[in-house]
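Sharing a chain and its predicted structure for anyone who wants a worked example. Both blocks are below, sequence first, tokens second.
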Amino acid sequence: MRILFTAKDFAGTPKRFSRRGFVLSLAAATPAFLALKSARAQGDVWHEYRPAGAPFRIDMPGQPEVDTEQAIYQTEPQIKSVAATVEYEKAVFGVNWIQWRGNQTVERLSAAWRDATRLWGPVTRETPFSVEGFPARELIGGSDKFFYFITRILVMGQETIQIFVNSPSDAGVHESPAARRFIESFKLQSAR
């Protein structure tokens, strides 16, 4: 189950974001959020997740479902993407790593995120920061109509990492110690 943007959503075209593509992916994702009940019986067991070939590690509240995509055509904007998600405490915790064919900017990706989330609810807070000298943004927002989110976007030239927690309830994300633990456990393994 992929509850995030894929490389195809941020294709290197002059158009920043395909509304049609977003609406279709949101339509596919919405039942997953509506179906979230209590978290799977994972207890309080956190696992370190290190995808092979990716430059980071992060602690996840359970064993993630992992989805890997490899580019088939040279015209695709991404080379490879790895997405990992876990349902925990009525929320979806996830991380998405993408290798791109060209350099990305945090400004472009965070603008695309702001544009896309207008359908879910506004970004209520955006904080720029850096991770080992690489530009990053944290975006927080959402609404009762869809869900609430915390998203961090890190850009390292031709690699991007998105860390997110989405929940149908505000307290499920913005006030959650588990969400903060997950987000703050992110560490880069090597400078690229």
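Comments welcome. The helical segments are 19-34, 106-117, 177-184.
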